[in-house]
Specification:
Radius of gyration: 36 Å
Number of helices: 17
Structural class: alpha+beta
Number of strands: 16
Helix content: 40-55%
Length: 495
């Protein structure tokens, strides 16, 4: 409520004694005092009423007014009952320090003023609440009709919708967005109150959206609008959920085609369904997150606002990203990912990126390269690791450019006799071979790992049987390499 509104109550006969500069000051509450120094009991924006019992000499007025101004008081009302009039020195002190001062007639009680103040304040708040409810209905209607959340977000309200990385989706500019996102992810229970950057905030999740990878609402502590804004943001999230589901399903179908190395014409059609051009160059990203069920949402958020096809599952996401400048795209991805570096303990995000592929025919090899880079990123001892296949060199990248049918035929030709023998005799030749090669051909370590260290002859017999069935010699390095590559072929059949 403004001071102007209170002075406008004719039956109170309150007379303004200072200039009219402060008539639009907001009054928070009424405080009555006759203490010469009451500043320590005030918090700001009060209307102070005093009977002037503290006044003994002109110098007292200066001390009294200075104390009020230091506490941020909005206005002062002085009763005329004790002295018959408000002292001129008090009027002068209030004018000089720009504190609005009005006289209260001797026959008007402070209780009457306090009751009227409360009545006016209640009526104002009720009117505001009615208007807010009307505005909220209008905002919900506009949102349902297709308006963007930022367009209907109430102006002047210190509340925001932030993405899972801290990007402001709706609301005014806000410092420390990333720290608020981290506080949201770390909070043991929601809603929660946190102090960030010296300010108190309330954090709330959207009903039905969960915490992992979803946007959330943050407001200044004590905001009366939090529940309404959560409702508004939840409607927007739900409205876009169906579109996200369809886009992810189409992208997942594209990834499945790349996994089986489908014909380029089929890949081109799947690219078109994902609103991507088969004539563009694309890089492939494979991502996983230690934040439960957040991989898809995180990679979508990190690529925002660029359009990309993002599919896969909640724990392992694959993105097909159009790019004319792969290094610049990768640099932007790393910059965006910096916002989640201080998330929960453990691996927050691991991303493997391929080089750009020209045309639909090169995307399968790009996917294999990205998967290899992702496997390497998982081994990095850091919360967020992003590796490009251009940064790595290994046989896996070389084989990624070999057609899948050829790789499968190679593995099948070499390992088929072992698998057939295992099936017929309930043996364990394939696993024995894999263990032997993984342990660099160490007989002792292999026997121990297979729990046959008491019968070393068992291991010797198995390895000899492998050589007889395949016609290969495990003492020869070239034959070991062939076996190793054939066994690794099975690692590519991941979702």
């Amino acid at each position: 409520m403004r001071l102007r509104d209170l002075l406008g109550q004719r039956d109170l006969r309150l007379r303004l004694l200072t200039d009219g500069d402060g008539l639009d000051r907001r009054l928070g509450q009424v405080y009555t005092t006759d203490l010469p120094d009451s500043g320590r009991y005030l918090s700001g924006d009060e209307l102070v009423l005093t009977g002037l019992m503290w006044w003994r000499e002109p110098a007292d007025s200066e001390r009294f007014v200075v104390s009020l101004c230091d506490s941020g008081v909005a206005a002062l009302g002085a009763g005329e009952g004790l002295l018959g009039a408000v002292p001129d020195d008090l009027v002068e002190a209030c004018r000089r320090l720009r504190l609005p001062l009005f006289a209260v007639p001797a026959d008007v009680s402070f209780r009457h003023i306090t009751d009227r103040f409360s009545s006016l304040l209640w009526a104002e708040r009720e009117a505001v609440a009615i208007a807010d409810r009307s505005h909220q209905r209008g905002r919900l209607t506009a949102l349902a009709a297709g308006a963007e959340l930022a367009e209907v977000w109430p102006p002047g309200v210190e509340a925001w919708v932030l993405s899972c990385t801290g990007r402001v989706v709706a609301g005014p500019p806000l410092p420390a967005e990333a720290r608020l996102a981290q506080a949201f992810l770390r909070a043991p229970a929601l809603p929660a109150r946190r102090t960030v950057g010296g300010c108190d905030f309330e954090l709330a999740e959207l009903p039905g959206a969960g915490r992992e990878g979803a946007p959330f609402v943050v407001a200044r502590a004590g905001s009366p609008y939090l529940d309404e804004l959560v409702q508004l943001a939840a409607l927007d999230y739900t409205r876009h959920a169906r579109a996200r589901h369809i886009e992810r399903r189409l992208a997942t179908q594209l990834v499945e085609l790349l996994t089986v190395q489908a014909e380029p014409v089929d890949v081109a059609a799947a690219l078109h369904a994902c609103r991507l051009s088969s004539g563009d160059r694309h890089m492939v990203l494979v991502a996983s997150s230690g934040i439960r069920r957040a991989a898809l949402a995180l990679i979508e958020e990190l690529l925002h606002p660029q359009h990309a096809a993002v599919g896969g599952g909640d724990d392992l996401a694959v993105a097909i990203v159009p790019t004319a400048d792969p290094p610049a795209t990768l640099a932007g991805l790393r910059t965006a990912a910096a916002t989640v570096r201080a998330g929960p303990r453990g691996k927050v995000l691991a991303i493997g990126a391929s080089e750009a592929a020209a045309g639909p025919g090169g995307l399968a090899a790009a996917l294999a390269s990205a998967r290899h880079a992702h496997a390497r990123a998982l081994r990095r001892d850091e919360p967020v690791a992003i590796l490009s296949s251009a940064d790595l060199a290994s046989h896996e990248l070389l084989l990624a450019n070999v057609p899948l049918a050829n790789r499968r035929a190679f593995a099948e030709q070499l390992l088929a006799p072992l698998r057939a023998y295992d099936a017929a005799h309930q043996a364990d030749l394939v696993n024995t071979l894999d263990t032997f090669l993984r342990l660099n051909g160490s007989w002792t370590k292999c026997a121990s790992s297979l729990h046959v260290h008491v019968h070393v002859n068992t291991l010797r017999y198995r390895l000899q049987r492998i050589e007889v069935l395949t016609g290969r010699d495990l003492d020869k390095f070239a034959d070991r390499v062939d076996f190793y590559l054939a066994l690794r072929q099975s690692d590519e059949h991941r979702p």
